[in-house]
Structure formats: structure tokens, C-alpha cells
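2024-03-11 09:14:02 INFO receiving multi-entity request
2024-03-11 09:14:02 INFO entity count = two
2024-03-11 09:14:03 INFO echoing inputs for audit
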Amino acid sequence: MSILGRAQPVASEAVSAAGCAHCGARLAPGQDRFCCAGCEGAHALVAGLGLSAFYARRETEAGALRPETMVAGLDLAPFAEQLRDGTQRLELVVSGLTCGACIWLVEQALAAEPDVLSARASLSARRLTVTWRGEAARANDIAALLGRLGFRVAPWSPACLRATEDAEGRALTRALGIAAFGSMNIMLISVAVWVGGDMGPSLRHGLHWLAAMIGMPVVLVAGMPFYRSAWAAIRAGRPSMDLAVSLGVLATAAMSLSETLRNGPYTWFDGATMLLALLLAGRVFDRAARRRARQSVAELLALQEGMVTRLLADGHLEAVPAEAVAAGDRVLVSAGERLRLDGVATVDALLDAAATTGESVPRLFAAGDALPAGAVNMGAAFTMTVSAAAKDGSLAAMARLLERAEQAKGRFVAIADRAARFYVPVVHLVAAATFLAWWGLLEAPWQVALVNAVCVLLITCPCALALAVPAVQVVAVGALFRRGVLVTSATALERLATADHVVLDKTGTLTEGRSVLVPDAQDDVVLCRAASMAKASRHPLAQALVRACPDAPLAEGVREIPGQGLECGAARLGSPAFCGLGASADGMTMVLRDGDAAPVSFRFADRMREDAPTAVAALKSLGLSAELLSGDGEGAVAAIAWQAGITDWRSGVDPVAKQARIATLRDEGRHPLMVGDGINDAAALAAAHVSASPAGATDLAQTASDLVLQREGLSALPAAIRIARRAQAIARGNIGFSLVYNAFAVPVAAVGLVTPVIAAVVMASSSLIVVLNALRAAKD
Amino acid sequence: MNALIFLIPVSLVLGLIGLAGFLWALRSRQYDDLDGAAARILFDDNPRKETPK
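2024-03-11 09:21:47 INFO inference complete, emitting structure
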């Protein structure tokens, strides 16, 4: 399975050349061994624990393990579970756990703690189970230790559990094991019957019975996944591939049993069990590929999921999950925090509402204004009164809207099912005709007629046809995974291949969605000085300043004046008003005033993603016309549209209008691909023919999307479309091949020339051809 | 021919042992983290602490 869906290390050679000794990120000029102070600390920590061997084994992506200087203060103690013997157990989802060396490092580092009893990490599920003796509050120390090593952790959430606790997948694996065991053992016996022409009838009878004793239970147990789905298909009144498989397998088993009873020349248990084993193998791999995508999405969501700080009546603070807060409670929103609930501000608040409305510039909300959930606090910490509990709030309303749109999309019929709809009745009619022709016209005994009719069912072997699409899916989904694209829906590739129009959101999709320092004529020394002060703050603009000059040392004695700026001795860094200049119009400017020196201002802007114009051009060359829909003002949208090379744009579009625009496009017969990241895009994402969300999208947008891009930038999108189209062409080729093959095989079976040997050979060979053909889908 | 009376049951029993082993491994969740298990065999140092049970 690892060959199909393991994220490949992107730049391992860069790690060994001029890379940071801890995280492997490329070093900026002037940096010696480490890219930042966090990595230096992590490296010292690893060396101190005697775990330096980690660096020789590591295969992580460059830069993935950079410890964040500021770790969000989520209290993990309530998540620790007290076991009966007084020990504590904590389950965490660990981001950055991408190679064997990472699990080794995490487990060994935790085991070095004297009170930790055990630590076990799972590489596929990114899950860490750690137990220790003592206080529940030690959970935070454990998280802090992992944070210093560069791993981000979040409590293991029910969503993660749903993604990994794959009971159905385990049932399929078990069925595969049983079917494989059965088919191999029956083949041993069958070969003896095929080649033993001089075998006495009593010995042959004995061997038939032996095959039946293995074959019948195997067919009944291992075929259950198919029978269940076939039964559902019957009740829904539409023939499916599983129905064809079930009928073929059960009819073959029943006919073989009757041949066993009357001691006929051959039984067909080997064919029936081999068919099951091959089909189950295809399904197990198909599931494994998509499970990985589901897990990665669940991991991203778990990391976004946070706690809110509730203000109690006695003035104390407590961290609680957002679901536990009722309307009327007061919560504290710290600087840089995302609002998880709707509320009413008690004081003026500066919020970045890009995720909810698409505006790129933060806006001032006066005391008493309604604050939308999903906005980010750009100003000082403030308290707000919650106006609706999580389940009644605007986020929940959006989720319901999403659900309705999803249901509408559920009507899409995959190509394999379309093929099955006409194929299954035809095959069964041919089988029935064969039986009637032998029995009625040729007056053969009914057993002979039945054998030939069932041979038709077996040789039409839904095998190749049932493997035709899943095999391509596994390979294509795996190839996309390696390029950082998660495919979360089973029919996403098919829909992506037919997309003919792309609708893009602006903020966070075409742009990076975070503030970046606009290069101006600032002196490097001044910039470095400002960045070293800014390091003390979580404010988004301060962090943007730090990103512009990451190796600046943390200045000593910085004092933060909430909502205004930072003070360090005689130096002040903050809003223009704070530094004695006029108030800034949009809150996207910071000023540094160092004593009596002239104030230096820093402008910030939401920059367009570097690869956006190339990606738009590539999409156009693939035949997708581009359109920009944004909730932002006309000027900002027009500028970005012009830069990205999009002529068709609309500004000031609210979520409902976005969804309506998608609906109009669909009514016109277009197949829109929607790309968006915000809460305001979620409904449009769900309504679109196919949807994608870029790296760093909000959780709601990610759940609504068929594709989640994991790496920065949009360049993966054209590649994904190319792969999807290629996969679709190969899937069609596979289906065509299976049909042609049947056109030859059916007459042979109908006239009664097929023996179990021939059936086994064609079954295996046709499946092999289809699977080998599918392997071509990985190429871009 | 008499050999078959021994050989067939022997082969079946061996096969069943394999199947039982597979089902046991599946039930004890050894198939849940295939990537991790593949990496773990390369750790040559002594495990310091392991999850009990």
C-alpha cells in the first residue's frame, strides 16, 4: 500500500546540502546551520536526549518540522483520560508525523520522560497514544515537548476516529483473506481433477466434496460485502455491478454443488472463489487509497478545531470546547484568534472577516455590532457576548446549507454504474437464453443446460469490468496524493475530468490570504529591529513582519499594549496612531518609532499567489474558462483579476449569490469547478460540479470540497485535471476492453466449450490486463 | 493414492493455521498501521517503553 499513497519527500537532497540541520528548510544567506531559533532549540533538545540518529533516518519534507515560536495555548489536561490504575492516557493527532524516523523520535523522546509509561505512535493514522503516571496537567508538558521538536498536536477528535476506525475496511480485508485462502486451496484440488484424466470416479467424487466443503463457506462468508450491496441495489430498483457479481458467484456455487452431488466431470468452486478474491483485492486497495485522504483531512480539521476561553461570573477564565458555550455567555477573544461563535462585541473590535465575507482588509466593528463567526481578531483581545450557541449559529446554518447542496450532488452516477445498468440485464438475458436454447431447442438434460448458462455468467466475469474503474482510481488517487492533492470523494476524479469552467474565489485562493510585508525602501537594520520586537506578539501583522525577517533575535523586555502596539524601552512598534502619526485607514500599516529617529512605516498587503497567473493560464489551455467571484470591493477584485489574467469577474458577491451563480452555470449546462477557501464559499463549493480548496482553507470549505490541495499554490490544480482526464480515458479503455473480451467469450461459453481451466485462465488474464493498463494513470 | 489421505488434511490444516493467524493479526489491529510497522523493524535500538496490552 505504501507504493500507492505515500507522500514522497519533496527535496531530500536539499536537506543534506544547504538545509537547516533540524527541519531541512533551505537556509537564507547568512544563516549557518539553522533556519530559525526554534529549529536550533529543537536540535539541541534532540541531541540532549541522545536521539541524534533521527537526522540520519528522517525523510520528512523540507521545512515541515519547523517549531512554531508561538504555540496556541490549548489546555490539553481535560482530554487526558484517567485509567483505573491511576495512570493517565492521552490520545493526540500529531501533524508532521510523516516518516518512520518521526515515530521513532516521538516515541523515544517521550519515553525519556521519567513518568511516561508508554508512548506509541501510528504512522498511518498520525495518532499518538501516551500514558503516564501523575497529574493530568502533564498533558500540556507533553504537547509542549512535541511542539519544541516541531510537531503540532491536537486532541484526537471524533472526526479523526470516524476517518480511521474503518470497520468496513477491516471487514473487506478479512473477506479478502478468507477468499484468498479458499481459492488457493481449491485450486490445489481442482488442478488434480483437471490433469487427473485417469482418476477413478470415486476419487473424483471425493475431491469434488472436498472442494465443496471449502468452497461453500468461503463463497458465503467472503461474498457478504457484495451480497449486502446487491440487496440494497435490488431494493433501490437499479442493477449494479455488485448484483452481477453476486448472481454470478452464487449461481456458480449452486451449480458446482449440484455437479458435486451428481459427480459431474468438473466443479467451478475455484472460479467462484478466485473471482471473489480478485474483486476484494481491488476494493481493499481502493479503500486504502481514499482512507489516507480522509485521514489527512480529519487531521487538518483537528488542528483547526480549538477551544474558546469563557469568562466566568467570578472573573476566572476557563477553556471549553465551542459546543459547550451557550447564548449569553461571555468569551474572551485573544489577538489573532478566530471567532468560533457568533457574538456581539462589548468594545470596538478590529476583525479580519475575509473567511466570512471575502473582504481582504480588516474592518472595525463598533461595540454592539454583530460579529460573524469565522472572523479573525486583528486587534487587541476583547470580550464578546455570545449571541447563539454553536448549533444555532451562522456556521451551523452554513453547514446545513452545505448538506442540502451535497444531497443534490449525490445524484451523480459514476461511469462504472452507468456501464452496469445496461451490461447486467444483457448478461442475464444471454444466460437465460443459453439455458432455454440448450434445454428447449437442443433437448439437453437440464443439468447440462444449467452448466452452460452459468458458464456464461462466470465467463462474462464482471471481474475485468468491476476492476476496470477501481484500479484506475487507486493509481490516480495515489499519484495525486504524491503531488499533495487529497481526493475525498469517490466520483471526484470523474467529475473533475469533465469540468469546463473554473470559478475562483479571491481572498485566500488567488491570494495567499495572509498579510505580507510590501517591500519598500526600508533599511535592513530597521526591518530586523522591528522584526525582533514583533516576535513578541501574536498579532497577524507582527507575524508578517517576522516572516519578512525570520532570523531576527527576540528583543528583550518587549511590552505589548493590546490593540495599539509594542513598546521596548524608547522604541515603539504598532499602529500609526500609537506612534504619534495619524490613524491608519485600513489597519494594514505598522510604524516603528525608535526614540527620536524618524518613524518608519511598514505597509502590508494580501499578495497574490506566485503561481496563480500560470495556473489560470494552464487551466485555460485545458479548455476551462476562468471566472473570479469575490465578496470584496470592486477595486481590489479588478486588480487581482487583471494580475491573474481573468477577464470575467464579479465583486461584492455574498455566499448566497455565489451559490446562485454556480446554479446558473449548471442550468446553462456548464460543469463548473469551484475553488474557494472561505466559509462564504462553502455553499458554492458544495453546489458546484466539482470543487477544490487550497492549502490553509477553513474547515467548512475543506469538508465541502472534493479535492483538498495540501501544498501552497494552485499549480497542482491543472496537473490534477490532466491526471483526472487521463484516468478517465484509461477507465473508458478498460471498460471497452472488458466488453470486447466478453463479445468473444460469451459465444464460446454459450455453446458449452468452456472448461474450468479456460475460465480460470481468462479470468486471471483479463484482470491482469486491466490492472496493468490502469498503472499508466499515474503519469501526469 | 493412500498418501492423499494424509497429505490433503495436512495441507488444509497448514492453510487453516495461516488463515487463523491472519484473522488474529487483523483482530489485534496489526493491519491498522502498515506504514509504521514497515518503518519500525528498522529501529535497531532496544525499545525503551512499549504500550502494554
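2024-03-11 09:21:48 INFO post-check: Residues 2-27 of chain B form the longest helix (26 residues).
2024-03-11 09:21:48 INFO post-check: The mean pLDDT of chain B is 78.
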